[in-house]
Amino acid sequence: MPIRLIVGLGNPGPEYEQTRHNAGFWLVDNLANSLPGCRLQRETRFNAFVAKTSVAGHEVFLLEPQTYMNRSGQSVGALARFYKINPDDVLVVHDELDLAPGAVKMKKGGSSGGHNGLKDITAALGTQDYWRLRLGIGHPRTLGSQQPVADFVLHRPRKEEQILIEEAIDKSLRILPLAVEGKFDIATMQLHTA
């Protein structure tokens, strides 16, 4: 099944724009900017920025919930129900503490790993069986910091980490057309070996 909805996770507002937790927004913004005529626009009925576009010849919705992270499921659930999009056809792009900056992984299903955005989306969709694109931001412990996780994700990455995260976003954008076409084996292989 092809992907019909790509969700970028983050927190709304300029104070969060450059924080690690907004890595999902960064990817969706980059994707929208790379597609001719694609513009994310506020849709109040979904409490989100939404764009309807075409990727690899398939119609795809891009979504950036404008709730806070822990309520992301409200927007995702509302749009998925309205357009009759199955959980199998959803790809959620989010920051991942368990991966180093620059690492990126794609998988279907699994637990939320403590990610509040994923927890709320799972509740809204009624299943864990949707696709995730996990952008590594590192963990404060593995990066030699005593910073609490909640504080860490709401701060900007260091310059060298930002460069690595941007490289992971670029790599992800290159395989997204394959994912949209439903060629997950090839997309995952290219993403994990590139």
From TrEMBL:
Look at the named UniProt entry and state the broad enzyme category this protein falls under: hydrolase
The record places the active site at 21
User: Per UniProt, where does tRNA bind?
Assistant: 16, 68, 70, 116
Record key words, sorted: Cytoplasm, Hydrolase, RNA-binding, tRNA-binding
Q: Which domain of life is it from?
A: Bacteria
The Gene Ontology CC terms held by the record are: cytoplasm
- The UniProt site entry described as Discriminates between blocked and unblocked aminoacyl-tRNA is assigned to 11
One GO MF term on file is: tRNA binding
Looking up PROSITE patterns in the UniProt record yields: PEPT_TRNA_HYDROL_1, PEPT_TRNA_HYDROL_2
Q: What is a single Pfam family found in this protein's UniProt entry? A: Pept_tRNA_hydro
* Cell location: Cytoplasm
- Which reaction is the catalytic activity of this chain? an N-acyl-L-alpha-aminoacyl-tRNA + H2O = an N-acyl-L-amino acid + a tRNA + H(+)
**Function of the molecule:** Catalyzes the release of premature peptidyl moieties from peptidyl-tRNA molecules trapped in stalled 50S ribosomal subunits, and thus maintains levels of free tRNAs and 50S ribosomes. Hydrolyzes ribosome-free peptidyl-tRNAs (with 1 or more amino acids incorporated), which drop off the ribosome during protein synthesis, or as a result of ribosome stalling.
Subunit comment: Monomer.
The similarity comment for this entry is:
Belongs to the PTH family.
User: In its UniProt entry, what is this protein called?
Assistant: Peptidyl-tRNA hydrolase
Q: Which organism is it from?
A: Massilia violaceinigra
